[in-house]
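Translate structure to sequence.
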């Protein structure tokens, strides 16, 4: 009897720890196409998982409809992954929650089904897997500065600090230029803009992301892919930023001094 009580107390504490971890994240990101499947929303996997998680109180979004704060700070969300270990006789699937560093924060129980029809089999297995989220009473609780390190922006990591250092150098340069007088005074060099009105870029896929070419097939920018779909890192002449797709349009966002600049980019594939 005493051992059973200890097991129950351990399970309760374990469940509370999981819920506390999930409460650290503002969004749950559901891909329109899971890596485990061949086509978008195959077997209604994406819509089913999103629906079931919303029923449990989670703030669930699709990977192609991320809000601005999540685009800037990828660590606000967990991305869902379907782990498919189906065999000839069984459909088996579990759901993993993965953070911006690729760490598995939570993994559900493995849902199983003996249904021969794939649609019914995956529906039953995914519903059983999602039962792990029942009763969690999720509530987003933002981390305070004392609860952990400062959030990282997408996969910039230490580049965020580099951006701040670059900003200080630029500001220092501006102060020096302002203090100079006479003929030797030089204007402050402005950071380059990424786009010119009417300019069109042509995307060419590479192993690490995309090359953007101009109308004369000259290389203009190199985009480095991230773990988030349609989000890339860009670094041109010391100016760092991100290129992302939102509402079927492409944008580049970067900092000039203390100001955040967002420009639309015309990109064709």
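Result:
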């Amino acid at each position: 009897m005493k051992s059973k009580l200890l097991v129950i107390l351990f399970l309760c504490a374990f469940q509370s720890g999981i819920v506390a971890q999930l409460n650290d994240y503002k969004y749950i990101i559901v891909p329109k196409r899971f890596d485990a499947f061949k086509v978008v929303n195959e077997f209604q996997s994406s819509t089913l998982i999103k629906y079931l998680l919303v029923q449990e109180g989670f703030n669930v979004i699709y990977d192609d409809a991320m809000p601005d704060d999540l685009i800037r700070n990828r660590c606000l969300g967990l991305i869902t992954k379907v782990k498919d270990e189906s065999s000839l006789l069984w459909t088996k699937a579990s759901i993993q929650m993965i953070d911006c560093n690729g760490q598995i924060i939570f993994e559900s129980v493995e849902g199983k089904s003996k249904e021969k029809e794939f649609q019914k089999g995956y529906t039953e297995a995914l519903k059983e897997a999602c039962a792990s989220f029942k009763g969690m009473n999720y509530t987003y609780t933002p981390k305070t500065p004392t609860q952990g390190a400062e959030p990282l922006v997408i996969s910039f990591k230490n580049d965020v600090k580099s951006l701040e250092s670059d900003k200080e150098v630029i500001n220092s340069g501006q102060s020096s230029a302002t203090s100079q007088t006479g003929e030797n005074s030089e204007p402050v060099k402005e950071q380059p803009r990424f786009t010119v009105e009417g300019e069109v870029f042509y995307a060419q896929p590479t192993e690490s992301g995309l090359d953007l070419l101009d109308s004369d097939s000259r290389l203009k920018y190199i985009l480095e892919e991230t773990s988030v779909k349609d989000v890339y890192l860009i670094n041109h002449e010391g100016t760092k930023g991100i290129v992302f797709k939102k509402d079927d349009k492409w944008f580049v966002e970067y900092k000039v001094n203390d100001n955040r600049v967002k420009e639309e980019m015309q990109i064709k594939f």
